[in-house]
């Protein structure tokens, strides 16, 4: 009797259930026995033949991707070349120093015209902790502003900062050295983990 009942239950309900109860899954994805239902999207559809238009589109995007990769590579090469040229022009500064000065230039370029006024330049000096007098700053700024239009470009800004305190025996002095040390400190802190920064009391 027991074997007969088990056979009937197995035939009707496909007992025992092969998967977890249906309550563990979305009902529309599984049968009453817990078996996954076939997805209509899983059925293989006949592959459509590739047309000449499809080939042209694919070729276009392949060429476009290759061109973009070339452009990015050239931009990076030009950036590296430009950076090396600047470092050669200002001995003692490295890429970190120049990148930090570039960030400061953009930060204090309040009019976003790619130029700094005397007030903007003084704000940069204040951010670096410079303690020179206003007369010194104005004198050196005016010496750098060759066309006397009241503005200095980024290249002039770098030259002004580097030569604010002229090098002695080829060694950086004053503001130029301060910029280098500030950039090195930033690089050091950036390389620390959050835990290490907490140990140094940076928070």
TrEMBL record:
- InterPro entries attached to this UniProt entry: EF-hand-dom_pair, EF_Hand_1_Ca_BS, EF_hand_dom
> Domain of life of the organism in this record?
Eukaryota
Residues forming the EF-hand domain are 96-131, 132-167
Instruction: Please give one Gene Ontology molecular function term for this protein.
Output: calcium ion binding
Q: Does the keyword Calcium apply?
A: yes
**Any idea which UniProt keywords this protein has?**
Calcium
Q: Output the PROSITE patterns linked to this UniProt entry.
A: EF_HAND_1, EF_HAND_2
Protein name (database record): EF-hand domain-containing protein
């Amino acid at each position: 009797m027991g074997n007969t009942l088990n056979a009937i239950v197995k035939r009707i309900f496909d007992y025992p259930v092969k998967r977890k109860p249906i309550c563990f899954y979305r009902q529309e994805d599984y049968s009453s026995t817990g078996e996954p239902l076939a997805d209509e999207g899983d059925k293989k559809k006949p592959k459509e033949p590739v047309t000449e238009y499809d080939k042209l589109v694919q070729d276009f995007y392949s060429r476009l991707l290759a061109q973009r990769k070339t452009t990015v590579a050239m931009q990076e090469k030009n950036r590296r070349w430009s950076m090396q040229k600047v470092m050669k022009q200002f001995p003692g500064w490295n890429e970190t120093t120049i990148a930090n000065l570039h960030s400061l230039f953009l930060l204090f370029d309040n009019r976003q015209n790619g130029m700094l006024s005397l007030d903007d330049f003084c704000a940069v000096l204040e951010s670096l902790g410079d303690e020179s007098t206003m007369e010194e700053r104005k004198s050196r700024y005016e010496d750098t502003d060759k066309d006397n239009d009241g503005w200095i470009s980024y290249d002039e800004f770098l030259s002004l900062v580097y030569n604010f305190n002229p090098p002695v025996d080829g060694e950086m002095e004053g503001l130029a050295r301060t910029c280098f040390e500030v950039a090195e400190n930033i690089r050091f802190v950036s390389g620390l983990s959050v835990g290490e920064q907490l140990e140094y009391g940076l928070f």
